[in-house]
Write a structure and sequence with these properties.
The chain is mainly alpha-helical. The protein is built from 9 helices and 5 strands; from the N terminus they run H-H-E-E-H-H-E-H-H-E-E-H-H-H. The protein starts with 19 loop residues before the first helix and ends with a helix.
Amino acid sequence: MSTPEAEVPEQRGPGKSLTIGAVCKQLEREFPDISISKIRYLEDQKLLSPRRTPGGYRLFAPGDVQRLRTILRLQRDEFLPLRVIRQELAAGRADPEVTKGKSPDPRALRRTTLEVRGPGSMYRLAEVLDETGADQALVKELEEYGVIRGERSDGEVLYDDTEREIVRAVTELKRFGVGGRNLRVFRTSADREAALLEQILAPALRSRNPERRKEAVEALENLAAIASHLKHLLLIRDLRKLTG
């Protein structure tokens, strides 16, 4: 008689692999709705690829468990659909454990680097549409409401990496009926945050000393990451009231 998959003995020792049942037990405190069927579904969606024993049972290495934890956190905390989570993971998105009692390292938070543009960072409209799946009317609407700002060069409008990712994000929002006019609140909020950070670091950013300017840019990146993380936490706190 075959042994149920959830009851297959797990490996012992450092870096041991876990059965699907043991994975559920390990994660159920943090994710109460976790289930064996949900893990199997994520595997069917090509988000997980645990090793299989000769008998066909799944064994999850520590890296597989951490990947699953990342997926579940992205679903719960950032409300991302699986298609976007797949893109995040493909781009190297990780979710390292944060040491208790310590603040997260701002450099580990998601942020847009504030470096000077380099070659290859500008995109034609056709490239933006192709990479994001957006339609031209949406891009035009975003420009009209000041959400994105293309730059004209040699008779055509070009967009940098940040503008392209804004279009990608708005394309996802559009699936929920959010249009360009609804995004003015984000634009206004971003302008106010940028003004605050500029006020804090303006003297150093305008310094004639290259080293001081370089330090100011690094500080600005870290401040932007911290501000973004804080805004995210405040948003999640308020959204949880809707589900409580």
